[in-house]
Amino acid sequence: MPVKRTDKTAMPERHADTRAHDFEEVNEGYCLSHAQFEAERCLRCQDPVCIEGCPVRIPIDEFIHKIAARDLAGAAQILREANPLSAICGRVCPQEVQCELKCHMGNRFRPVAIGHLERFVSDWAREQPITVQGEFTTPWRKEKVAIVGSGPSGLVCAGELARLGHPVTVYEALHAPGGVLRYGIPEFRLPNDVLDSEIDSLRSLGVVFENNIIIGRTLTLDQLFDEMGYSAVYVGTGAGLPKFLKIPGESLNGVYSANEFLTRINLMHAASFPRADTPIHVGKRVAVIGSGNTAMDCVRSALRMGIEEGLVVYRRSENEMTARIEEYHHAIEEGVKYHWLTNPIEILGNEDGWVTGLKCVKMELGEPDDSGRARPIPIEGSEFVIPLDTVVLSIGTSPNPLLTRTNKDIKTTEWGGLVVDHTTAETSRRHVYAGGDAVTGAATVILAAGAGKRAAHGIHEDLCGSPCGANSECGCA
Ligand code: FAD
Ligand code: SF4
């Protein structure tokens, strides 16, 4: 099959000079001619190995061929059936290490831009009448299911169970649903209207959202089962508990965990203070410690809050960085500076208790450690100070312990992850299921979504007594 184009069709994006000062989306999305051009690069492989690289096994070749044939409704239908969060995943999935890594085109040239095409089709579908979104129904089964947490894992589990006929209520601790998709990932990567539209589709399926309710505190699991009549509970509470460096100065004013920093800006709209209630102190120079997507989101958000200099401090080198390459490049274009091989050892402050700087030591890389990455080793006598107003710690998170602390019958691992049966997703407590970051630790949107989908089928099978489609009386066939 002749190769028509060797390069990926570039994603149109806003210029760094403009976009670094507002929260509007950076990527502008393909137009129809971009999408068709890109779709025609697909080789139509006999063995579309790209599908193996997708955690929810989207029939990638099929939806791309529909785009090439100008059948966008057909492409949208394929995507919606395989991945209810495709507009989100088309924007934030690390395709370069998943489906696109496997793409045969990538053996000689740049792989097909599967993520950009997924985003294009989903955005197109959002603007169409509801017919391409699928048939909307009201629940017809009696077994109610409660979902704890409204991140991607809870949302997908809720949607799948609603499609299988169950009355579903999602309980969310915060005042708006979406989990990290709302409070963590900034609008310049994932606009709220994209998320709202996915949530509205779930509402149309009959899913009910109850915000400001902490399960384990406002309501207990026992109450859900015994007083409110739920037959099963899915726990998708994520991994929102920040880790700290345990170095002197961490309690100074001007030190934030990444979660607090992003929540103030994204969920509480600190950029609009005093029109919004929640302020944030950024000052002129901000350093973010860490190198993942979260660190990039923090430093790029800080730029948009009007700082003069945004820095990333990481104890390993650029090669060990864990952020998506696209986000890293965008951050560089926007003016972010990087201190590689630099380890913070103390946060310095003034007599009023505010941050003034970060004391660091230079590092060199040794043999690989348990994580398989080169072990950073301090270079003696290389200490130096970076003058700063704000320090954001983005060095990882672990599962929120609230629900498990109040339910001792739910087993957890040493690091706090919920233990589940890998086939059914059931925890050690009967009829309580779990998935997403609460089980795996901090991972990705699509892995959380995939876990929610698998668990929904496990829950349905358990409640219905037979696999989906196997019981003609069930109505899920
Ligand atoms: P979450 O999204 O964490 O949602 C859990 C929800 O449960 C939260 O809303 C929380 O308030 C709620 N909750 C917790 N406890 C309770 C309780 N007791 N009662 C009621 N509600 C409760 N992944 C990617 O694939 N690509 C990216 O680009 C990317 N960028 C990221 C950027 C940031 C800043 C962060 C923090 C993560 C990023 N990730 C990214 C990771 C991804 O967002 C997570 O893996 C994913 O959101 C996990 O989904 P989840 O449903 O398991 O949990
Ligand atoms: Fe198309 Fe690449 Fe998938 Fe082959 S592997 S079907 S070229 S997207």
If you had to describe this structure to a student in words, what would you say it looks like?
By secondary structure, this protein is an alpha/beta fold. A hairpin with a 5-residue loop joins strand 10 (342-349) and strand 11. The chain has helices at 16-19, 32-39, 60-68, 72-82, 86-92, 99-102, 114-126, 152-163, 180-183, 192-204, 221-227, 258-267, 293-304, 325-333, 402-405, 437-440, 445-464; strands at residues 144-148, 168-171, 208-210, 230-235, 241-242, 255-257, 285-289, 309-313, 337-339, 342-349, 355-368, 374-378, 384-387, 390-393, 397-398, 432-434. The strands form four sheets. Strands 3-2-1-4-16 form a five-stranded parallel beta sheet, with helices on both faces. The protein has 17 helices and 16 strands. It has three domains: 16-133, Alpha-helical ferredoxin (Fumarate Reductase Iron-sulfur Protein, Chain B, domain 2, Orthogonal Bundle), CATH 1.10.1060; 145-240 and 398-464, 3-Layer(bba) Sandwich (FAD/NAD(P)-binding domain); 244-395, FAD/NAD(P)-binding domain (3-Layer(bba) Sandwich), CATH 3.50.50.60. The two termini are 39 Å apart. 47% of the residues are buried. The site of iron/sulfur cluster (SF4) has 14 residues, from helix 3.
